[in-house]
Amino acid sequence: MYETNFHKVATVTDAAALLTNAEDGMILAGGQTLIPTMKQRLASPTDLIDLSSSTLLRKISVEKRKKMGILRVDGGETVSIGAMVTHAEVAEHAELALVCPVVCSLAGNIGDPSVRHRGTIGGSVANNDPAADYPAALLALEAVIHTNLRKIPASDYFTGMFSTALNDNEIVTSISFQAPDFGGYRKFANPASRYAMVGVFISKSIKGAISVAITGAGKNGVFRHAELETTLTADWSTSAIDKVDITSKNLLSDIHADAVYRAHLIKVMAKRALV
Question: Is the CATH number 3.30.465.10 carried by domain 56-274?
Answer without folding.
Answer: yes
